[in-house]
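**User:**
If convenient, please work through this fold.
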Amino acid sequence: MRHLVAFIIKLAANGIVIFSFLAIYNPNINIVLTIAILTTVLAYIIGDLGILRRLGNTAATIGDFLLAFITIGGLSYFMIQQSWNMIITSFFAAVAITVIEILYHLFVKHYLFEENKETRVVLRTDPKQRFATEFSKELYVRSRNKKK
């Protein structure tokens, strides 16, 4: 259920951006919905479930930009109008989607990939810190063999 909510939020955001930028060319609404759905499905599977979990927000954002630009640019170039203006419009749509994706990735990391803090194990990667010794002064030393 969490994946469905995250996907619908991403679809709404991508759909609004794609429709806003491609509305200049007066395309059929079915074409815009097709481009928005394909872009969202590919970006969600590859970017959010694949790259974001393994490599982090920066790599996922760069991957989402490239994926959005290639998907929107390619599909709109062949389905709406074959011109350089369409490629430039797709570039700016991809930039707008990338700005939204930065905030969306923070939401996804918190909402989908939230770890249970009670069962979380912290692993130290520095081998020098594997065996640590604590030193302290005894503030109140009581002798067991103290004579009264």
Notes: Residues 116-123 have pLDDT under 50 and may be disordered. The chain is about 65% helix and 0% strand. The radius of gyration is 26 Å. Residues 2-117 form one domain.
